[in-house]
Specification:
By secondary structure, the chain is of the alpha/beta class. The protein has a single domain, classed as Rossmann fold (3-Layer(aba) Sandwich), CATH 3.40.50. 44% of the residues lie in helices and 25% in strands. Strand 1, helix 1 and strand 2 form a beta-alpha-beta unit.
């Protein structure tokens, strides 16, 4: 599963950093965003296989 892109959308910096750290440790390529507009932009441009978001 190495290299699969995951977009993490979380406004809490501590939680976002923890998620990024653990996903990278498991071999994923992680994109992150702190807000919805940036997340939509990254999702359209990067086409991640999974998006994890705080609703």
């Amino acid at each position: 599963m190495t290299g699969n892109k995951i977009l993490v959308v979380e406004d809490d910096e501590t939680l976002r950093t923890m998620l990024e750290y653990n996903l990278v440790k498991e071999g994923y390529t992680v994109l992150s965003s702190a807000d919805g507009l940036d997340a939509v932009e990254k999702a359209r441009r990067e086409k991640p296989e999974l998006i994890v978001l705080d609703v």
